[in-house]
Amino acid sequence: MRLSTVILPIQRWAEGQKTWRRAEDLGFHTAYMYDHLSWRSFRDGAWFGALPTLTAAATATRRLRLGTLVTSPNFRHPVTLAKELISLDDISGGRITLGIGAGGNGFDATTLGQEAWTPRERADRFGEFVPLLDRLLTEGAVTQHGTHYSAVEARNVPGCVQRPRLPFAVAATGPRGLRLAARHGQAWVTTGDPKLYESGTPEQSVQALRDQSGRLDAACAEIGRDASELDRILLTGFTPDRNTPLESVDAFVDFAGRHAELGFTEIAVHAPIPDSDFDIDPAVYERIVTEAPAQLG
């Protein structure tokens, strides 16, 4: 079980860089950040861009893997995103993971002036976005004409440091997204079943995650892929447990152990932010990453 963290881009870099360096010093596997233009209760406060911040984090760290959790088509295009990712992968020395999802109905969905897409439209776009981005990151020149995304002689030499490309961690719960994860992902990401967040129980959440994981196995079987090739990442904070697993090392070990039994190989926890949904004890947060791995085995 690998432990990773999520650092929200709410601090100017002069202060924020300390959080990224501390994540490396503590021994987290990966430090992720959301790729949004703004997000929920943070909309009226500071919120910096994901890829420039990750570039700065790449120069401030040496071992820590870095990534998005997640990037979406809401305001990204595969051609420009591919160029930026190749550059970021190079600057980091091959330490980038792209978490990628279909997007939702948050502020990003309409900030460019478009109407929010329906779930079907998001799935349609995601179904074009991921395969085209895959090609752009693995081929030197790409021409493709799609319904939503096209590329004409898009050049991406020399490509990624990581070969054949940087890894994709595909966020998905529905059948189309899970098929994309099975075909293109090196990892699968879930936050659980959002319908259970308000009124569900931890036991129901575990069962929902078991069902999701089983559907991923089936999607892999459809294309003849060994499902064990995919890492399985749980982003915490959005299940009925909320922040309860972060109240103590023992609580986290129990939580992580139950989810390891479901096949999860990585758990991501949010770095503490006072007066927010992620207002957890910084001392416990640090003890979790330094003490829990030995208990998890």
Secondary-structure element sequence?
EHEHEHEHEEEHEHEHEH
- Percent helix, as a range, is 25-40%
Poorly predicted tracts of residues: none
Contiguous helical run count: 8
Strand order, biggest sheet?
1-2-3-4-7-8-9-10
- Distance between the terminal alpha carbons, to the nearest Å? 8 Å
Based on CA inertia axes, which overall geometry fits?
Answer: globular
Provide mean pLDDT, rounded. Answer: 97
**Approximately how much beta-strand content do the residues carry?**
15-25%
Number of β-strand runs: 10
Please identify the oligomeric state.
single chain
Main β-sheet description: 8 strands, parallel, barrel
* Secondary structural class: alpha/beta
Write down the Rg: 18 Å
Summarize the helices and strands and which ones pair or pack.
Elements lengths: L1 E5 L6 H14 L3 E4 L16 H11 L4 E7 L6 H15 L3 E5 L18 H20 L2 E5 L4 E6 L12 E4 L3 H10 L2 E4 L11 H21 L8 E5 L13 H12 L5 E5 L11 H15 L1
Parallel strand pairs: 1-2, 1-10, 2-3, 3-4, 4-7, 7-8, 8-9, 9-10
Antiparallel strand pairs: 5-6
Helix pairs in contact: 1-2, 2-3, 3-4, 4-5, 5-6, 7-8
